[in-house]
Amino acid sequence: MPEFVIPAPPQACLPVTTGRQFPVRRVYCIGRNYAAHAIEMGHDPDREPPFFFQKNPDSLTATGRFAYPPQTADVHHEIEMLVALQSGGRDIAPEDALSHVWGYGVALDMTRRDLQGEAKKLGRPWEIGKSFEGSAPISPLMPVTQTGHPQKGEITLHVNGAPRQSGDLAQMIWKTPEIICYLSRYFELAAGDVILTGTPAGVGPVQRGDVMEGRVAGLAPLRVEVI
Ligand code: MN
Question: What is the torsion angle, in degrees rounded to the nearest 10, for the CA atoms of residue 184, residue 146, residue 56 and residue 41?
Answer without folding.
Answer: 80
